[in-house]
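Writing this down once: the sequence line spells out the residues, with the fold written below as integer tokens. This is how one looks:
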Amino acid sequence: MGRNILSDTIETIRNEKFFSSYYNYYLGIFSMKYKRFDKAIMYLKKSSEGKLTRSESNYHLSLVYYYKGNYVKSKELLDPLIQQNPNNGKYHFLSGEIYLKNKNIKDAQNKYKEALDLGYSPEKVFYKLGYCSQELNDFNKALQYYEKSLRLNQNNPTVLNNMGLCYLKLGQLNKSLECLKIASKISPKDKKILRNLGLTLAKKNSFDEAVRIFKLLYLNGQRDIDILNNLGYCLLNIGEYNEALDYINLGLEREPDNEELLSNKIGCLYKCE
């Protein structure tokens, strides 16, 4: 009788620990999802004490520290997981992300390739490999990877935007414009896409269209030197000299020695004479 009570008590304790581990694990995931990172760390640390939830808890702890920008701590948690289970693609992918944040592009590439070999999310991995190649100024290689990613999701505006940038760097303006126009239709309010679209239009001497894009960005709070300079340059090229000077002078108030702004101002003043 006493032995049965003891066995039942031990089993109850085990079940409570089991429940508690999973309970804390899911609270940690929930907190991470809503960017309550400190709470997520607290719950996941508790969850990692359970044998059945330890690996996943430590993986998500690594992920939380990555989101918080603590890449050293993230890697410290992740490396043992890779040693324990080298065939888990998501571990290698996160390792690649950490290397990328630390600007170790070659190491990031190697990790992404390992993740790809293990079958982890090809669409994401091809995009990341494309991004790495782009960062290394290997635009043709980047385009090859982006094409592979795009085949798996034709409506990814980020991939299309980066393809547009690569084509722009290679001087293939028509292809650049094609990619960026598709991207802007999918994500019409994306400021990065609109900026690159404006730059490509300006390169193609489609100054009226470029002015429309840059003015839209300006009205939506994008008032940095590049936008002011591009507005001035495009307006200069369609004969709107006084309006061009307004934007150029705004830029020169911030950077009086900016050579591009000064050059465009000289051009405007010469045309105004």
